């Protein structure tokens, strides 16, 4: 049974593999692309990069939408040159702390300022030489469509659970914006290709702006060591599946080796989308989650990003910070400060926070004049009417609260809607009793982490605030359950931001908690935040990326597919396509042949409505069976009655039924069992359990067999069916623990069968029968498509060692589709298998006539 991830393979071609040496690389100084690309356009440039480069050095190329740089144009004395400096607030710069001093880092991204085309070459050279940054210069019109168009109108709202139900909510899907998105990703790919040494370097791509970049890089360098981290939420499949380019983005992400998410929820949604839309399932092994995708294992990393501790400590120690803290101490003397720090956008829930604070003042009149909400509203990053509406609603709500509850010398809400210096924001953290984060959806949000560290303070700040440095610090957090940082802050008061009463109650609780409780919660948070900083996050991600790529060197890789459907197949070096000419030649020169054929998925398409063998298949089998040199078996999981009826016209055909429990050498012999089973009493235990899951899983059914019971969920919801199958597997293993049976899961099935039953038994019986006739096969062909056929492959490949085959025997173990297998060969699909078998049958027919 072939999963969809292995079906419909296109044009498999092995391509050249030049060496890429850093020393010999001549880097182009700038590459500016002004056109719009509809899809990938460089189909002829894929390479496997098989030959190692001459220089090996640890290096990581970090790719993000923006370079971690600040830029400023000098205007004095007619000198209009550009000045550049590191942006200390950039996450891409901060993560260097976790990479080690011996790790070279190169950045690829855009500049925040527009650079005149005449200056781009000089700027690019300066940035490369001074900062090891490679700028991607995007034409303004293309950048607008890419960033403000596709990224902010389509991906950003959708990933935050906003559907484009009307033009006012993100707008309808615009194909030209998607083409701009692809084009910009292609420009980024070209920039990475200018500097990459594909066999040595790691590439780490960041965020939703560059989700198709992995496809371009994987197409150019099949073995590129590529990680991707998504800093936004990933929506549930019900939301994500509305995106017209949903499959293209999923396939692009799966061209990475490691995909990172902040929380398990985001990863779970991504895995569900892969299962529902691509038919790719995941497995968890020794704590690592992986998706098997065309022979490659795509690993999943779940770890929230941290903050930059060193930067925070340095800002806390600044004289400016100390002065600002003293100023705020005096300003809010005798009052308790609640703090909100948010971007001015529709997902941050600022208005919900204000309504909850209004509710707090209504319900607790004693807090009026004593509690102040300081709301820092950072300027919005996006554009559009939604931002204007949020601003208008925020200003109106603040005005209403201050008018209703304000008094001389007391303003309940202080709204700061201008940009603050970092040290000013830090000062507000230091003097605030509680931090409020009420976002309705947010990828991570590091504000609570920053707040906790700042509340730990310094000796100088303790002195300014009149605190005893030897006394433990305290802090309180009210955090929306829809933010990525929420799961890691177990001591926070988690709230549903849409429930105004609940948020108001949480504010009150944060203020009246016993001091000891506040100390304990702060201590728990500080220990986590300080140990899981941005350096820890970066180091952990790179370690997992290295682990995910460790098998690259020993795997053979091919690129298949066109456009954004491109993917790489990774196979064992000894695995290759079965040549029809080669096997027919071996067939002709051999005298004693053993042929084992799986049926479902091998001789007929697994998903076909009618799985009965057609006239062509019957004729091929009869021609093979008539040849006196051949012993031919068809082995299937189906019942003996069905197989006997289907192949009633094949007199000399051997049949293995129910995955090897029953077999007969030909039509004129009786059915025999391969394993002696005294009693099937265990069915009376298994069937009621299966019935329970059948009743609760729509689309599932029980398939009773003579030797087994099979629970089939092929027609059920894939996620629910898979979940139920795992539960059923555990349930059956528990109740049948002391019974002589095995419980196994397969492609959309859970099966209970006697211990020792496998298709390998039929292969054993066939070879044993030939030995009894003193015939040692010198030609063995075994073909199958799924996990149950691996037992046959194992038997025939090990038969050489126990003298069951002729010393000069030629063995052909062949699977269907290119996937990891114990077989040495593969054929792409059922039609290729039938053509190959027809070639063998024709050879037998010609031999009989001669």
From TrEMBL:
Keyword Plastid: no
Record's GO cellular component terms: cytosol
InterPro entries: Glyco_trans_20, HAD-like_sf, HAD-SF_hydro_IIB, HAD_sf, Trehalose_PPase
Listed Pfam families: Glyco_transf_20, Trehalose_PPase
Annotated catalysed reactions: D-glucose 6-phosphate + UDP-alpha-D-glucose = alpha,alpha-trehalose 6-phosphate + UDP + H(+)
Domain of life of the native organism: Eukaryota
Keywords of this entry: Glycosyltransferase, Phosphoprotein, Transferase
Molecular-function annotations in GO: alpha,alpha-trehalose-phosphate synthase (UDP-forming) activity; trehalose-phosphatase activity
Keyword Transferase carried by entry: yes
One annotated GO biological process: trehalose biosynthetic process
EC number: 2.4.1.15
Coiled-coil parts of chain: none
PANTHER family for the chain: ALPHA,ALPHA-TREHALOSE-PHOSPHATE SYNTHASE [UDP-FORMING] 5, TREHALOSE-6-PHOSPHATE SYNTHASE
Family: In the N-terminal section; belongs to the glycosyltransferase 20 family. In the C-terminal section; belongs to the trehalose phosphatase family.
NCBIfam families on file: HAD-SF-IIB (TIGR01484), T6PP (TIGR00685)
UniProt-recorded name of the protein: alpha,alpha-trehalose-phosphate synthase (UDP-forming)
Species for this entry: Dorcoceras hygrometricum
Record lineage: Eukaryota, Viridiplantae, Streptophyta, Embryophyta, Tracheophyta
